[in-house]
């Protein structure tokens, strides 16, 4: 039996049942076993047959169909509370032959319920965020996650007969007759997703729980019998085997002749001393193990930079560091003084190694296949590398001077499409335009409109834009982008020529297609700060009607909020009047009517002379508003 929190796990020779007890204030009726269950025991006349149970796995609510009745017996110590039993997991195995292991030896062992806390929890107060159930046969081990839905995480296939196993935060330690072996675990992958809802998004990533496990280390011993773990220590008990190989073989043959697999007679304890030995093995510190993984990964990278073995090893290192970070959070909560300071320094080392690992994973996915290239973005984000540093890590390979990985391009596009305060220097901005002109020329307009690209060389960019126009044809956003570059160069004649190439309505459609040609920071919350572009400031002086039409179009297409549009104009009356004529939203109309009515009343009642601002709307245009002014 294993206990953890409200979970109870029960192990038979080839069956495991996991239950959950929930306290209630009302007494629940106990179910009597059905007649079919009462008669489930096989009659005596079937003793001449070998009865083999059917393999079965029932998860969650389906586990109650295991036909094993469970009743809660009151002891009088429950403080008035009653408990309800919920079936969580049931697993039944069939006996199998295995080299060096008889059918009778195919029995479950090492049942364990293992809790794991997140960094936001208190170990002494909170229920564990994750609970795992591990059990093992001599040939294979199984790890399940119980909280938040039962899930089979990993299956461990042992190369030889395993006598006992113990699960820890970082590794699974198993013993055979002559060796201690270590396997990786997936507990940290589950805990990371429980702790952080941004995992598996464009913000953060983590290797999947289904990542195949692997063996890391093996140490040779003689006659191992038992294993347990405490912190970073593994305690082993061993003894010399006094049986000769011939006696072992005869004993195995006698046991193999038994007709009932479920009955095993215990060995008699020998009175002769066996020379028992106790070993306490210090496991390798996680940071040291991580450094060894990094060294191995460099060898993989030299032979095959895009190989799955490299990515698998980096993923194992990532999960190792994640489990250490969870553990260090628990230590910081419980430590004081010098111990807390040491824990803080240790955590800083872990975080630095974690960022390094995220950068390596980002490099792996940046040049990977199209299927997983999107993972380069969250890993680079978690590494906290600047876009300049990411670009330096993704220079084209010598054999492919114009080839950039799909993951790197995916990262770069998301970076440029987001509103960020980081502005690239001219050298980096020019390199970005060259990258997209070679890889995805259709993205050049969006790239040039990004607020990160304010320092781009307008003359060099114009050449790339002109080449794009020659090869792909004329488009309105492309023309506006070229006009913006001419404006930056101070060539007003060429700027006016480009702006007059298309009708005003087509230019408005161009602004809808790429709003950042007019302003940066639009959309989102109404309190988000917006900034007009150089083109918007030029239009405010030379073509205010086009600017108003563009802003109205952006507002109607939910590209900018009303409060944000107010920051673009010194005098907002023209914008409000135009929006009122175009809007069909009642809430917006009510707000605009209130603002305009206040302005008109202020103009009529002002003691001084009216404003000299020339309105863009005539009196005939405003007649349409009179029917609404009573509101």
TrEMBL record:
Domain BLOC-2 complex member HPS3 C-terminal: 288-630
Pfam families listed in its UniProt record: HPS3_C, HPS3_N
Highest taxon of the lineage: Eukaryota
Occurrences of domain BLOC-2 complex member HPS3 N-terminal (ranges): 1-269
InterPro entries to which the protein is assigned, alphabetical: HPS3, HPS3_C, HPS3_N
Protein name: Hermansky-Pudlak syndrome 3
Organism: Goodea atripinnis
